[in-house]
Amino acid sequence: MINPYIVSGPVTGEHFYGRQALITEITSARQRAIFIVGMRQIGKTSLLRQVETLVPALFLDVQFAAGQLAHLVRQLKRQLGRKGRDHPWLTTVPTVEGDDLFTMLESINDTAEAKGQTVWVLVDETEGLLSMAGLDPTLLHRLRGTLQNCPALRAVLVAGKTLSKTDTLRSEGMSPFFSGFDLRYLGYLTPSTSEALIRQRQSETPIEVDDELVAELVDHTGGHPLLLQLLCYQLFDGGRPRPFQNSDVDAVLTRVRHMGIFDADFDYLSDACCGPCQKWARPSATI
User: Fold this and answer.
1) Would you list the DSSP string of 186-221?
2) Out of 2, 10, 112, 179, which could bridge 117 as a Cys pair, Cβ 3.0 to 4.6 Å?
3) Which residues contact 261 (CB under 8 A, 6 or more apart)?
4) Is the pTM of this model over 0.85?
């Protein structure tokens, strides 16, 4: 049996667990703009990719654009071509010459309005807007204004806490970029969702796992989705996770440290935070 636990890349479909209330809120289209904050590897990209499978959506990766607005525009044009196969009305969006992101968004909005449709603009690694704004201080204000004035668009932006620096980039007399966004935090999986993931309940072939082992896995990871997948992947043997030993935890801990996924997040933790990321983030940590 192939190891069912996924330890790299985003997950969707039957491999995506939890977050249902947030997905329902997003896809209901009642909120015009949502900003989702979460630590690294908590599942932000997977959340956007899952939403992308449910509604007419255009996925933009600001990190992939490498801080270049022109690259972001090319992503948007390519997305229109790809999504037109599932939503033919998107192919009727007029062509916009050059790299004018704002005219493109307005054009998409006008087409969606004319067709009685809604388009979700899903923006991943939104921290990259900071470097773009450094080259063009008006960019954030223009983007915010465009989204506010395009009623057929729904914006979902995900990022870590570093994006809070956008407040320092506002022009005098203008509102911060995220004024008008509904803020949501993406945290750990609930115990019930963690159990479902461990047992692969959404799969055609669920896995039998002892209750005691499930409890230990949830306790050691706190329900952090990547840590949970990594530990289950490490333990998977003979069609099910075996009981773990200290060497298994050490192996996962070494991998986590090499990935450096918690280094940036650690500095944001308050003294009161006792989440699992504290004990996985530093070389001196033990679990």
Assistant:
1) --PPPHHHHHHHHTTTTSSS-----HHHHHHHHHHH
2) 112
3) 40, 41, 226
4) yes
Contact yes or no for 132/70 (Cβ under 8 A): no
- Residue tagged 């004035």 (tokens): 149
pLDDT along the chain (287 residues), means of 10: 91 96 96 92 96 96 85 92 92 86 95 97 90 78 90 94 55 68 94 98 95 95 94 94 90 84 55 51 43
- What span, in angstroms and rounded, lies between the C-alpha atoms of 70 and 66? 10
Which amino acid is it at 261? I
H or E stretch covering 123: strand 119-124
Amino acid at 129: L
Is 276 in contact with 221 (CB distance < 8 Å)? yes
